[in-house]
Specification:
By secondary structure, this protein is an alpha+beta fold. It is built from 8 helices and 7 strands. Strands 1-2-3-4-5-7-6 form a 7-stranded mixed β-sheet. Strand 2 (115-121) and strand 3 (124-135) form a beta hairpin. It starts with a helix and ends with a strand. The model has no long low-confidence stretch (mean pLDDT 88).
């Protein structure tokens, strides 16, 4: 097999692999790379209809990526809804993603989490944050879960940036669980700071 054929097959394989991705941004990136490779491959043959098709697909991918990245920290793009811990829809979301939640949060149970927040992007639920009262005006995060499609983003940040969802319940600090310490870059960008074994967010009065 000559080099040109290897390039063509490689580009086609990337396009196929991209369609198997659950994460939206990763899908777009891989699909874009595959389309660019196929544009070059079809220019070399040349097969002009395929050049045109892949060029258009590449532009579509760039536009979607631009929109995704542009709004990833946009308060107008996401909404935080506080729900009752016994809410039927919350229970459905947790049950539907129980296997994935357990993978990253072994031993997790929502039974001790009276404070529940859904992160919405339009009509779609993209994340769940659960917490309980740790005493002394502190809210302890029990779960910060993002659906696989949005895992290249950090929708949970909107719960922490909306301090009123905690201060309305009398909290003045938020504690991140130890398992989230590996995400300290994400948390520190939101204002969390080390305090003993925890990363702590001080809420405004």
């Amino acid at each position: 097999m000559d080099l040109l054929s290897i390039i063509g097959w490689g580009g086609s394989a990337l396009v196929v692999v991209s369609l198997l991705q659950t994460r939206i941004l990763r899908l777009r990136v891989l699909n874009l790379i595959g389309c660019v490779i196929l544009v070059g491959f079809n220019l070399a043959i040349p097969v002009w209809p395929m050049v045109g098709m892949n060029a258009v697909l590449a532009v579509i991918n760039v536009v979607h990526m631009w929109r995704l990245l542009r709004h990833r920290h946009d308060d107008l793009e996401y909404a935080v809804l506080e729900v009752n811990s016994g809410d039927a829809y919350l229970s459905h979301v947790l049950t539907a993603h129980q296997k994935d939640i357990s993978k990253f949060n072994p031993g997790f149970t929502s039974a001790t989490s009276p404070y529940a927040f859904l992160v919405q992007r339009g009509e779609r639920t993209v994340g769940v944050v659960l917490a309980h009262d740790a005493g002394s005006g502190r809210a302890q995060i029990d779960l910060d879960y993002v659906l696989p499609e949005y895992r290249d983003f950090t929708p949970g940040e909107f719960v922490y940036r909306r301090s009123d969802v905690f201060t309305d319940h009398g909290f003045h600090q938020v504690l991140a669980p130890p398992r989230m310490n590996a995400m300290d870059g994400y948390l520190k960008n939101l204002g969390f700071h080390p305090e003993g074994d925890h990363l702590v967010l001080d809420l405004p009065d």
